[in-house]
Amino acid sequence: MKYLCLMIAISLSSSVAFATEDIDAKLYNYRSAVSKLMKTLKPELVNTMKSKGPVAAIEVCNIKSPIMTEAVSKDTGFVVQRTSLKPRNAANTPDEWETKVLNQFEDRKAKGENPKSIEFYEILENDGKRQIRYMKAIPTSKPCTVCHGEMIPPPVQAKLKELYPTDKAVGFKVGDLRGAFSIIDTITQ
Ligand code: HEC
């Protein structure tokens, strides 16, 4: 009996170890995709704001960034989106799982965790399919406040109002959580 228990323990621990390795590889891909997007988006926003002004830069967030997000999704086979508890674009409204995770991120930040490294994943069963869902917090930095802050220049406000009548993404301060990247990866095997 003692022997049998030991064998069960060994087989359990080895299957868990394999799953951990597998998930580690996937997490590595999610983190690279997100960091690639961050590294492209932010400099492009800042450069366009410098060269053409913030009204022109609105296009970087509203046209180019969805295109880039889609491109990463095509490259990797999983879906990358952006979401927020206070979305600008209603299409970025979080679903139930994302809302739960965004609230969890706010709690973790309030307890002192660095917003730059806040992330979370979970393996879910959905309609008989297994999905890995991953989220990574997006902190607010100085350049973001031009369009998401407390004192948005009037011409920018006017353009935003025209494009996003239900805009909630204002009033953010440096260091606040602006939102998160959200990845859905459906596992086929
Ligand atoms: C020039 C104006 C502008 C600046 C600067 C800007 N944004 Fe945005 N942001 C927008 C617009 C416009 C949208 C809506 C995009 C869309 O239609 O999907 C948006 C959407 C987002 C979203 C998706 C969720 C939502 O609210 O719809 C996130 C996350 C976000 N911005 C983060 C940031 C961060 C972080 C920065 C700073 C690095 C930043 N933004 C700087 C204009 C801006």
Describe this structure in words.
With 189 residues, this protein is α+β, with helices and mostly antiparallel strands. The chain has one domain (2-187). 54% of the residues lie in helices and 19% in strands. It has helices at residues 2-52, 54-76, 96-110, 145-148, 154-163, and strands at residues 79-83, 119-126, 129-139, 177-187. A hairpin with a 2-residue loop joins β2 and β3 (129-139). α1 (2-52) runs antiparallel to α2 (54-76). The relative contact order is 0.16. The structure holds heme C (HEC). Heme C (HEC) is lined by residues 42, 45, 54, 57-58, 61-62, 66, 82, 84, 87-89, 92, 138, 140-141, 143-144, 146-148, 169, 178-179.
Task: Kindly list the characteristics that best describe this protein.
4 strands; 189 residues; 54% helix; binds heme C; disordered N terminus; alpha+beta; four-stranded antiparallel β-sheet
The general outline is: globular
Strand content: 15-25%
The stretches of 5 or more residues where confidence is low (pLDDT under 50) are 1-18
Total domains: 1
C-alpha Rg, in Å? 20 Å
Please outline the major beta sheet: 4 strands, antiparallel
Mean pLDDT metric: 86
Question: What's the helix count?
Answer: 5
Major sheet strand order = 1-4-3-2
DSSP E strands, number: 4
Distance separating the two termini:
34 Å
Bound ligand species: heme C
Secondary-structure element series: HHEHEEHHE
- Structural class of the secondary elements? alpha+beta
Helix content: 40-55%
